[in-house]
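User: Round two. Same drill as before: sequence, then structure, for each protein.

Assistant: Same drill it is. First protein:
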Amino acid sequence: MNKQHLHRLLSRYRSGRCTQKEKHLVEQWFALIDTDQTQSLAQENKEIEERIWSAIQRDYRSVPAPKGRVISLFFSWRSAAAVLLLAMAWGSYQFTQGRLSGKQLQATLQQRMTVKTNNTVQPLLLILADGSKVKLLPESSIKYPVNFIQSKREVYLSGKAFFDVTKDPQHPFVVYTEKIATKVLGTSFWVDAAKEQNGVEVSVVTGRVSVFERDQNGVSEGEKLNNGVVLLPNQRVNYMTANQSFVTGLVPEPIMHEAYQEAFIFSDTPLGQVTVLLEKAYGIQILIEDEKLRNCLFTADINKQPFLTKLEMISSSVNADYKIVGTKILLSGKGCPGN
């Protein structure tokens, strides 16, 4: 590895002719030295290259030579660049015949990650580098980068946690469990993989969430939505491990939008208007199967009642029944007297 090889690598990056792997490594290096490669001027390039080269020289001198072997420094410049950039990013490296083995590379990459396990009996609050908050429940673990420097903000969960994600449309936030991936831009939601051998549950409090099945290599197939679902507030999905399917439904206790806290006082209000208000307040679609119900009148103050109690009071007062079908509510019945 010499200055010429380094110059060639950076030149290929600036001209957009490097491979994806080379691009990834160079961008990581720039991020770690607090230099914005997209804003560097041409006259700054030589200074930046000198800084990189000086750092490389320091790392060469700091790595002890292995006993009993002579390692040539004249290996492929691409392999050298990859090794050196990884060394600068993560503080140490090992090489054999000029390249990292698979296990060595995996161990080096893991040094960039932080792993937290909640061994207490109380939820553990974590704040990630982007400001996102994670409430990690007992007997759960999460692995995440010290800094998010990729195009996606990726974390890995085992157990159960609540995520309140800082909005960043340019950098989606993805939570991986063993079987599924949950992708958001900025929202709050639960992921429960405590018993993942049986299934995983994702439930949404605010925002929009996409949940996908991961393939055998652990990569999310979600961009294609071949096997996945999109969830809205108060919706949940259970991924059934046995048959690799998604079953959607409503959360057990839907949460009302704050703007409708005092909106549920009715006096001879037609059922059609009552259900429209419920839909707006909870984001849940309510279908009236029998049109004769729509004009039935409802009178009550149900502000303090939870969602399902509201439904019970409304349906019983108009001689109707409700049932939950997936993420929808169906109202049906004989209707009020005189209709």
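Second protein:
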Amino acid sequence: MPFREICGQERAVGVLRRAWAGGRLAQAYCFTGPPSVGKRTTAVALAQAVNCLSPVPGDAGSLTPDACGTCRACTRIAAGQHPDVGLVAPEEKTVITIDQIRALAARASLRAYEGSVKVWILDPAHEMQEPAANAFLKTLEEPAAGTLFVLVTTAFSALLPTIRSRCQEVRFAVLGEAPLRTILERHGWRAEDAAAAAAMAGGRAERALALEPDRLGAAPVRLAEEVWGSLGSLPALLDQAERLGKDRAALESALEILSAFARDAVVARFASEEAPGLSAERRALVERTVGDTTLAAILRVHAAHREARQALAWRAQPRLAAERMLLKMREAVWHE
């Protein structure tokens, strides 16, 4: 996928395109940001750009050139079959081992086989074991000519400081709903399903693509109604926490649904009947579910969802995170 087809990361892509066009590419980059927002895709696009056999001029939105996406080099890179572009990913116990880094170092010392630049993508780079990280540092300190390293990570601070200092950081943002809709529609989704999934995905393409189009309507509505309905009874609330907290992925998905519902409840409280993005049917459902809950209470509910997501990011137990969130929701709604 060439640079021009990457959605929602104009700033990061612009930095790379300008550096490439001006002959100012760094020898090592670190792509940082939330998961599933296009970091690895952009790393592949960079590999295509530096090895493309027929670069194309910039389009109307950019004066910098881009990879063609169709030549032999571009298609082989996209398929993961180019001999000069390698991906290093965890193989054993979700970590990148020293043996993998030693193999990378041995190949990186060789001249490019058929491309212009050898490109190595490490994803996720923060999963390097300490011996592997130390071995990789030696390769970074004495890189072979014509070699480009791209480290992909959601935890920049987890990398060795000496590795961070030798990489140019490029930050990636959470995807907005519009780019997510575009991505989903490229995968054949109907526009209305893409819009619904984008609103529930929390800015992550992988999460949006994992949703089932046929269940976008009923399942989220039922979940929101069940959660809000459980707040009046402590036993029902604890049962709901047990269901929501069965596993991390399920709770993350539920939090996106509940957050979207709370946002719609806020809109329904102060926006006009013609508010964009909130249909009359959705408004009626939201108002029926939240009842006479005040705007201040709804905002506290939304804050509880945000805190639960932060807790999961810090590896909290899903069951405890779900229970704490529901208790905060109950306090906001019933004890305002």
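Residues 3-171 form a domain with the Rossmann fold fold (CATH 3.40.50.300).

User: Perfect.
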